[in-house]
Structure formats: C-alpha cells, structure tokens
C-alpha cells in the first residue's frame, strides 16, 4: 500500500507545478530513498560557435532534450539511473547517498560528420531520505572531441577536378583511426567532421587529386591536437616553373595552412599561414641583398639528419662487425614520413627493399627485432627525436663478406618539408 500512495503523490506534484520550489515535500518514499527535481539540473552548453542558440530540426543542431543524464554514486563506476533529458520525470527517486550527475550529448566516435560530443559533470551532491534536492549547481558541458573543417582556396577550387578530396584522420602511436573525405561538396555545405580525442593524438590531412591534369598529393600534419578545438585547414595552389599552366615544366604544389579556434571561447589560438607565391618576398633590383638589405636566411625544410662519429654522411664509411653506426633525426613539428630504401645486391631477399618506420605494416616485428624502433614502439610518427641505430646490422653485413657496398637511403619528412640522406657503408 505504501508504494501505491507514493505514485499518487508524485502525480499530484506534477499537476501542481512539481518542478518548482513550491513542490510538496511530504512525498512518500521507500525507506532510505530521497528525491531530486529535474529542474535542479542547470545544463549550460559552452559553444561560442553556436552562440548558445538551440534550434530544432536542422543538421548539426544541438537539442537539449537529446542530452543523456546519468546519476552515479560518488566513486562508483556504473550509473544508478540514466535518462534522455526530454523523457526524464520531473522528480527522480534515488537511494540515499552522495551522487554526481553527468550530462552528455552525441557519441564519442572515431570519426563522423556533424557529431559534436559534449560532456559535463556536476559537483557531488547528497540525496537524503525523505527529502527533495532542488539544486545541484550548474553542469557545464564542453566539447570533448575534435572539430575539423576544410577550405579550398578559390584558385585551387577552379583548377582541381571533381574527384579531388582531402582525407582527414587522427592518429596515435598504435592506432590509425577511421578517416573522413572532404570534397568540394562538403566544403560548399560547410560540413564539419568530428574526431575522437585521445591524449597525444595527431591530425593528418592529405590532399589527393588532379590539378590541371597533374596528380598532386600533399599532407599537413598537426601534432598533439587538443579536444574542444576547431581546426580549419585551408589548401592553396602554387605553380612553379613554366610561364603558364600548360607548360610541361610547371610544378604543381598544394600548400596548407591551419587556423585553430577554441570552440568554447570562439577565439583564435594560433594561425599558421602559408603564403602563396605572389606574397613571398623576392630579391631584385629594388631589394638587393647587402649590408643595408641583408638577404633573409632560408628557413630549414624538413627534419635534420646528423651522424654520430665516426660515421660521415658525405662519403663511404668502412665498417666491421663492431662498428658504431647511428644517425640522429630531429624535427621541430614531429616526423610524418620515414622510409629507408636498402640498396644492396647481397641483402636482396634477406630484408625488404623498403622499410617504413611510420607505417611498419608487416615489417613491424623485423624493425623491432633490429632495434630500429624503441622498446614497445610501433611507429615514429610525430616523434621529434629519432635515433636510427643500425649497428645491429653490421654483424649481418660483415657475414655476407668483405669488400661489399651497402647503401641505406633515408627519406624523412615533417610538416616543413622532406629531406633525403644516404648512409653508404663498405665492409672491411
């Protein structure tokens, strides 16, 4: 009979303005139970790009009724109760104890169009037997995944064919997640992609397509991206070589720049602008180099590759089984490409012709066994310091005979460019 009276009093509370502070506090509950008002949850969505405007029924809109609300006992892992906010009763009954309320919107997916994922948590609050909790404070919901949009500069839009696209992925040391492909159509619709955030994850955007009939591929890598940020990546076209685009000597190049905006504050955090050719400073009669107008230093392009003594990258190195053969690679922005071509008649068939330290694939165990990857590492992607130690190769090389030549051709790149170096060895 007690349970029957409990439901009657709940109905009366709803009909008489049950979510207000004037709601009756003499509602019958089971022993050890208390209650909380739906109105006690003050959900605040922090998204400056939305301007706090909630509109129903159009793509990408945020609807408060679709938030999921969970009540979890403080310190517990599994929730006690879960509701869609629009379906949540005006009064919720819970066992006594300390609780935390969590409000979430969307799903935390690897990659999906128009899928913002918001999370907010309340401070701990108490449910007391026979009492109604009418305020748990503000629950601030913030963007927990990564937002990306792609823009094609007008000249590039005119010159690239309809099949061209930019593939965007987020990658970490041991996880290559699903990607999204941005075409002209996605740009015209203003589509945004949302990607799962994991600490230390990097964002990689690769342009692939035909530009005036020339196949072009260009990658922009952003290391250690942060959740709650909107990464707006702009691809531009530059041509070098001939006087017109029909010249066979024209070098088609697609550059990329990125602007980062914090979604909550809606302010730019940084802007990495790549100038097009018309904006780059040139040296001529009006701006000669000299004491009054010194020529600006040319910025380094690509990672720095240096050899430890006694190895010299400018010549052939004599080695034996005990030789110390180490190269040190450094990058300010993080490695995005690291391939090693092995040029050796005697090694053919014993090891692959090409080893990829960014995407090892089936050669992962071989790379780890040879010590070319650090302990437990599966890639050098986004590493800023890499020690390429091939000393372990020397026993194998010398075992193949003396007076033999072996070349390791390294191609190493980052967001600033690519460098190629040759490590030439001669067994004594």
Strand and helix layout:
Layout: H1 2-15, E1 33-37, E2 42-45, E3 68-73, E4 81-84, E5 91-95, E6 97-105, E7 111-113, E8 118-121, E9 125-127, E10 132-133, E11 138-143, E12 146-152, H2 154-159, E13 165-172, E14 175-176, E15 180-182, H3 184-189, E16 193-195, E17 202-211, E18 214-222, E19 229-240, E20 251-262, E21 267-272, E22 304-307, E23 316-319, E24 326-330, E25 337-343, E26 354-356, H4 364-369, E27 385-389, H5 393-399, E28 405-414, E29 417-427
Parallel strand pairs: 1-10, 2-11, 12-19, 23-29
Antiparallel strand pairs: 1-5, 3-4, 3-6, 6-8, 6-9, 7-16, 8-11, 12-16, 13-14, 13-15, 13-17, 17-18, 19-20, 20-21, 22-24, 24-27, 25-26, 25-28, 28-29
Overview of the molecule:
The protein has 428 residues and is mainly beta. It has three domains: 2-143, no CATH class; 146-279, no CATH class; 304-427, Immunoglobulin-like (Sandwich), CATH 2.60.40. Helix content is 9%, strand content 40%. The chain has helices at 2-15, 154-159, 184-189, 364-369, 393-399, and strands spanning 33-37, 42-45, 68-73, 81-84, 91-95, 97-105, 111-113, 118-121, 125-127, 132-133, 138-143, 146-152, 165-172, 175-176, 180-182, 193-195, 202-211, 214-222, 229-240, 251-262, 267-272, 304-307, 316-319, 326-330, 337-343, 354-356, 385-389, 405-414, 417-427. The longest helix has 14 residues, at 2-15. Residues 1-26, 52-60, 241-250 and 270-299 have low confidence and may be disordered.
């Amino acid at each position: 009979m007690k349970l029957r009276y409990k439901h009657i009093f709940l109905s009366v509370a709803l009909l008489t303005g049950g979510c207000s502070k004037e709601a009756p506090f003499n509602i019958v509950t089971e022993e050890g139970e208390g209650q909380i008002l739906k109105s006690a949850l003050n959900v605040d969505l922090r998204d400056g790009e939305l301007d706090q405007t909630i509109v129903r029924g159009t793509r990408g809109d945020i609807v408060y009724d679709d938030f999921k609300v969970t009540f979890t006992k403080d310190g517990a892992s599994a929730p006690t109760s879960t509701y869609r906010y629009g379906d949540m009763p005006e009064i919720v009954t819970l066992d006594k104890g300390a609780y935390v309320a969590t409000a979430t919107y969307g799903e935390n997916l690897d990659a999906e169009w128009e899928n913002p994922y918001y999370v907010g948590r309340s401070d701990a609050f108490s449910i007391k037997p026979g009492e109604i909790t009418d305020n748990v404070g503000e629950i601030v919901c913030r963007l927990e995944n990564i937002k990306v949009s792609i823009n094609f500069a007008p000249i590039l839009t005119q010159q690239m064919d309809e099949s061209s696209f930019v593939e965007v992925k987020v990658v970490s040391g041991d996880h290559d997640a699903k990607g999204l492909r941005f075409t002209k159509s996605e740009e015209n619709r203003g589509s945004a992609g949302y990607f799962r955030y994991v600490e230390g994850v990097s964002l990689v955007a690769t342009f692939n397509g035909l530009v005036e009939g020339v196949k072009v591929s260009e990658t922009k890598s952003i290391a250690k991206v942060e959740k709650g940020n909107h990464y707006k990546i702009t691809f531009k076209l530059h041509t070098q070589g001939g006087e017109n685009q029909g010249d066979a000597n024209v070098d088609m190049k697609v550059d990329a720049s990125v602007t980062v905006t914090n979604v909550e504050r809606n302010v730019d955090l940084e802007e990495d602008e790549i100038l097009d050719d018309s904006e780059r400073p040139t040296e001529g009669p009006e701006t000669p180099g000299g004491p009054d107008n010194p020529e600006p230093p040319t910025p380094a392009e690509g990672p720095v590759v240096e050899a430890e003594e006694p190895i010299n990258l400018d010549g052939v190195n004599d080695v034996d089984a005990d030789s110390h053969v180490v190269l040190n690679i450094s990058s300010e922005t993080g490695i995005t490409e690291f391939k090693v071509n092995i040029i050796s008649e005697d090694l053919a068939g014993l090891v692959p012709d090409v080893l990829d330290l960014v995407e090892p694939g089936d050669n992962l165990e071989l790379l780890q066994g040879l010590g070319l990857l650090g302990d437990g590492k599966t890639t050098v992607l986004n590493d800023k310091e890499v020690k390429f130690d091939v000393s372990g190769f020397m026993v194998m090389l010398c075992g193949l005979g003396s007076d033999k030549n072996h070349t390791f051709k390294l191609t190493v790149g980052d967001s600033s460019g690519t460098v190629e170096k040759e490590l030439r060895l001669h067994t004594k």
